[in-house]
Amino acid sequence: MDIRTNPAFIRGMTTSRRDALKLAGMSAAALALAACGVEGKKAEAPKKDAVADFWAGKKQNGTLRFANWPLYIDKEGKEYPSLKMFEQDKGIKVSYTEAIQDNGSWFGKIQPQLAAGTDIGFDLMVMTNGNQLQRAISLGYLAPLDHSKLPNFAANAAEKVKNPAWDPNNTFTIPWTLGVTGIAYNPEFVDEVTSMNDLWNPKYKGKVGMMIDAQEIANFGMFALGIDPEKSKEADWRRAAAKLQEQRDAGLVRKYYENDYIDALVRGDIWITMAWSGDVFQQITEGKNLKFVVPKEGATIWSDNMCIPKTARNPVDALALMDYVYQPKIATMLVEYINYITPVPATKELVLADAAKAEGEDKEFLEQLANSPLIYPSDADLAKMRGYLMLDSKTDQLFESIFQPITQG
Amino acid sequence: MRKRKLADRLLFGYVWLIIAWLFLPIAVMIAFGFNDTQSKSNVSWQGFTFKWWGRLDEYPDLTDAMINSIQLAVICVVITTVLGTLMGLALGRYRFKGQGATNLIMFAAISSPELVMGASLLSLFVSTGVDMGFTTALIAHVLFCLSFVAITVRARVVGLDPSLEEAARDLGASTWTTFWRITFPMILPGVVAGALLAFALSIDDFVITQFTSGAMQTFPLWIWGATRIGVPPQVNILGTLIFAVGVAIAVINSVTARRRT
Amino acid sequence: MKRLTPYLLILPGGLWLAIFLVVPMVFMASVSTQEGNVVDGFTQTFNFANYADTLVLFQTQFLRSVGYGLAGTIIAIALAYPIAYWIAFKGGSRKSTYLLLVLLPFFVSFVLRTVSWKFLLADEGIVLAPLKASGLLPEDFHVLQTSVAVVGGLVYNYLPFMILPIYVALERVDPRSVEAAQDLYATRSAAFRKVVLPLSLPGVFAGVLMTFVPMTADYVNAGILGGPQNTMIGNIIQTKYLVNNDYPSAAALSFTLMAAMLVGIFAYAKALGTENVLEAAAR
Questions:
Q1: Are the beta carbons of B243 and C108 separated by less than 8 Å?
Q2: Whole-angstrom distance, CA of residue B45 vs CA of residue B251
């Protein structure tokens, strides 16, 4: 074989003006044809009997297609132990796919199918309580949950996760896992952190990490100013944006990170950063010298939630799994692997019981897990935590236009 | 004479320096496939181990994504090579009305950023209500590889001497025979180069695939998702294996090339 | 039949390009003049203000992207030309091996390679830490999140697309004509200037086309290696499409970007007079 040829020898790649005009003419004609808008689909308010309507005549099919984030379920070799138990107990075979990388691209992918009312290839998915989930709810893309089929959720879920502001009465979602956005830092370079203002400390110039997500940084800007993000108004957003802009202009921010801040922190590119609790916990158990704090002004609590797309083929099977993982022993299997906040408080005792049976490193790890405020936050910490602000389509655009110039200037 | 030798030697050193630069990140990637990491993230060196090689299939989704990537690339190569070769022949051999328009469209395909292509395809698929997945991703891959193959083949065709083919026809060979016996062997290097290029473009594509693959995962997309919690060493090993295939091709090629001269 | 041959050859590929390139563009053009949002839907209002608004809002990123694209392209030419020259004239029987060496890194997934760069260039990483320890670099020196890192990443990722076309052009130069020129002009440099360089220009042109466009529209390098001061227009478009679902603005930005690219490339082709060169070569 001999590559004597040219992979891109642009030759005669020119065109006469007439051809260009012809093409332009064609496009204009087609443009006129395509000049119609994309239908908006505002959902009607859920009717009282929406639940009964949806579930009427639906039955268990024995299969379930579950879309989740990468590395977000317990695993042994090739097996998912919790799903295996589910299959043995309920006779439902789960095909599990790590199909979701981030809420934005995931929603972008499924939105067309949901708008057209066709199957997206999954019966159960996990989405964060941010803009995309709000959109899915307001567009009527999600199935209303039949809570009579969720006894374990009613019995075992923490009060904190029931009836969240963004989904009253858990009409469409129940949590898979929760997490906190707080501050992580490297004590080698940074004095003890207690306050949001430490992210504005000029000592750490160029060594501060912030997140690129508009809602994440907006919340931090508001906490720093003592504003409750869940109750904030446009004037508050503008003040928060000015505060964040100040931080950027002073050259403090090394980068607005997506999900790669943890590597930067471990490698020493940054010393202090906004961070998700589970990421930091995993690094600490590995022996990294890092600390995670919930600043005195507050921190953001978020949840990744299970929900059923309206077009699901096996919604009854999906509902069965949603309830199944709220059994304490199953929730324990999950938390021991995922290391984020579990919505089932009863797992703490079970993790300690597992620790008592374990040896060496495993024992140490499980004890750390059960006693970690990153997995089982204290009531004092929980009281300081706030969720994301709820935005409708109009305010959403305004909100983005205020905060995006900071992260993408 | 001595001066020339020195200049050549400097240039030779420079070439290897650049090649080393190109390979540096690859070396890091290979090394971290042997990292004895204890957790789900793989960013700091914790000792040497072979254990991940025996646990390659631990992530069924990753394996599926890899298979999807390879299937996509192979089918894309087959389609683009056939269509692109035909286009290259037409453009290099004939002069016809509409050539300018064809060139313009090919030119647009090469010079429109991937991002723009992906976004516009997404708008099309959304508006027509097509289910997105393997097929839509394949359409997109063929779209952005096709022009490269066509241009590569055309460059080869233009440099050909038509007298051989004329001679074959004068001797009574049919068009079909002439093509397979004379034309095709002559343009083969161009076709192979185009196919290789298409394969390389397709297997590593991230941007367009992100827009058009629906819920289907490919290898690059899976890695992108995994960065949220940490890229497992298995990914590095798969990367190493793909790379090894490339090295094997290079070595075989080098040996046969030397035998030819 | 004979007159139809080229059309039959062009048809399958040409149709593919026309359907999947031109038609989606038309849809996107339509979207770019609409107003609305995902929840309430979009309506076609021929709102051409989208173009003006987005251009004003993101002119910095536009200019920065073009700047990075230009810088990356120029550096790529400087790096690629000597390599292509050496492989073409001194490679001997190993030519294709060297070319494969240049292409090999591209068998490895782009995301993985960029993650590796992040590791290599870390502030306390294997490259910078020793230099800082020996006092050659100040303690707060960093490469990541600077323009240097972004442009470096762009050059790294698109270098082969510059090397190959230049190599092909040089490979067509008959070494005997170079020797003859050397006898004529007596110095190597003059021979190079008068014979080799002009003959290789079409290759450089093709290389520029293959690197400048993708570099300018790239968002992955700026996303991974850049910082707050390095956002490129691609990052904006991607965010608007996939995160904000603000399709009209995203489509308008995409179109502006594409138009700018096309105008630039045609102007460039005219200025270089490559048209004539290429036309002549094509006959």
A1: yes
A2: 31
